[in-house]
Amino acid sequence: MVTILIAEDDRNVRLLLGETLRSAGFTVIESRDGKDALAQLDQQHVDLVVTDVMMPHVSGIELVELLRESGYEQPVLMLTVLDSFQDKEAGFTTGADDYMVKPVDLDELLLRIRALLRRSKIVSAQELIVGALQLRMTDATVVTPHGEIPLPQKEFQLLYRLLAHPKQIFTRQQLMDEIWGYDVESDSRTVDVHIKQLRDKFSAYDDFTIETVWGLGYKGVIQ
């Protein structure tokens, strides 16, 4: 099931959007502002973000900037009362995929969301097959012939990133930027720790290896 995060500081609007999306069959996560949204995104996979622009703590513009800088590639739909060309230009320039002016027509909102999902192939691309293993993005789980291995979000994102681009070398800093981009308390050694944990958990499987490229970083190799 597709998961959508709503970042909206107006409680009534947030509840209305959430009810509309749930009725349409989506899983919904609600955040009261951009800061809360970042915390939610740090803990779980989200397929699409719907965000208000004017929010306390971290605005919608700042939220999208932080997400794009960290390598988050899923679609983002902005909602705002600001309807000038300059406002829309700022949203798209920041990295938003679509932009709607409040009050939004809920039927049109659903149409735009489904179009964004089709465009990004999220609806059909919820998993990655590596040999006999299935990396299931919806719940950060690796399905093996012997059962399921649930992973913490960061470990899953790291593994998915490496195996979705086999033999591509990723530097530690690149992985930090893409996966821990807005977690300023982490450093590159965090990557090493997570790599070790992944190697330990999948040592019994020969479908892939995570190789160290000395002086550079890591790469995933599918056998």
UniProtKB/TrEMBL annotation:
Residues 3-117 form the Response regulatory domain. Keywords: Activator, Cytoplasm, DNA-binding, Phosphoprotein, Transcription, Transcription regulation, Two-component regulatory system, Virulence. One of its GO terms (cellular component) is protein-DNA complex. GO terms for biological process: regulation of DNA-templated transcription. It is found in: Cytoplasm. GO terms for molecular function: phosphorelay response regulator activity; transcription cis-regulatory region binding. This is Heme response regulator HssR. The lineage of its organism: Bacteria, Bacillati, Bacillota, Bacilli, Bacillales. InterPro entries: CheY-like_superfamily, OmpR/PhoB-type_DNA-bd, Sig_transdc_resp-reg_receiver, WalR-like, WH-like_DNA-bd_sf. Residues 125-222 form the OmpR/PhoB-type domain. The modification 4-aspartylphosphate is found at residue 52. It comes from the Bacteria. Member of the two-component regulatory system HssS/HssR involved in intracellular heme homeostasis and tempering of staphylococcal virulence. Phosphorylated HssR binds to a direct repeat sequence within hrtAB promoter and activates the expression of hrtAB, an efflux pump, in response to extracellular heme, hemin, hemoglobin or blood. It comes from Exiguobacterium indicum. Residues 125-222 bind DNA. Its main location: cytoplasm. CDD domains: REC_OmpR, trans_reg_C.
